[in-house]
Amino acid sequence: MHAKEAQMKFLKVMGNYLGGIEFSAGYRWQHWIRAISIFILIATGFYIANPFVTYANVSIDPTRFTQGYFREFHIIFGFAMIGAVLYKTFFFLFFREGKYERASLKDAFNIKLALQQVGYYLLISKHPHTKGVYNPLQFWAYFALYVFFYGIIITGLALYAEVYHNGMGAFFYPFAKWVETFFGGLAYVRLWHHIFMWLIILIVFVHIYMAVFNAVFGKNGSMDAIFSGMKWEKEGEEH
């Protein structure tokens, strides 16, 4: 009897909510490919910059390619991230489903709305109504993230072409020399590659905080949607 009552109560509560597809399968795949790639690239990038694995016994046999293995994984996941970033860029600019993200441009320069959003994150006001899927703070955070993405991609491809001179490396080599000249030398290309990495790390922490905050206080499955694709909105309300 208690189980039946609990079931009826659950159905009554859920009846006040409307479910809908928030993220398509392609959108979710690119998100997780990008997320996994970022963490692997950070880990392998730290090792490439400062190799810390040493061997007690020195050997002349060419079998200890630790640096090479780290570089291989760095390159593989680097190109995986490039694919995911390009997909998301085209999604925003050209895909029909991206119109909800493009609608966020209408609120991006709304200072009053941005201040209301700050109040929401400080727990002193309600979530403001937005025209798109991103509030102004989210929009500019993601905009900055993609500036840093393309910065690290450009410098990364330049560093790649300086080491691998055949195939794709040869294709990017003229571009790499232009990038090297623009930054004032290969050492500065590497330096800016590291700077972009730290900026991405910063934005990733902010992104995770915002996602968890909205999931806890929004109570609409906004964080669950990146797994299931579904988000819940209370009937008669939109964010």
From TrEMBL:
SUPFAM superfamilies linked to this entry: Transmembrane di-heme cytochromes
Keywords attached to this entry: Cell membrane, Electron transport, Heme, Iron, Membrane, Metal-binding, Transmembrane, Transmembrane helix, Transport
UniProt record, GO biological process: respiratory electron transport chain
Family assignment from sequence similarity: Belongs to the HupC/HyaC/HydC family.
Domain of life: Bacteria
Organism expressing this protein natively: Lebetimonas natsushimae
PANTHER family for this protein: NI/FE-HYDROGENASE 1 B-TYPE CYTOCHROME SUBUNIT (PTHR30485), NI_FE-HYDROGENASE 1 B-TYPE CYTOCHROME SUBUNIT-RELATED (PTHR30485:SF0)
One function term, GO molecular function aspect: heme binding
Domain Cytochrome b561 bacterial/Ni-hydrogenase intervals: 23-229
InterPro entries named among the record's database cross-references: Cyt_b561_bac/Ni-Hgenase, Di-haem_cyt_TM, Hydrogenase_cytochrome, Ni-dep_Hydgase_cyt-B
Transmembrane segments: 32-53, 73-95, 139-159, 195-217
Compartments, record wording: Cell membrane
Membrane topology: Multi-pass membrane protein
Keyword Metal-binding: yes
Protein name as it appears in the record: Ni/Fe-hydrogenase 1 B-type cytochrome subunit
Gene Ontology CC, one term: plasma membrane
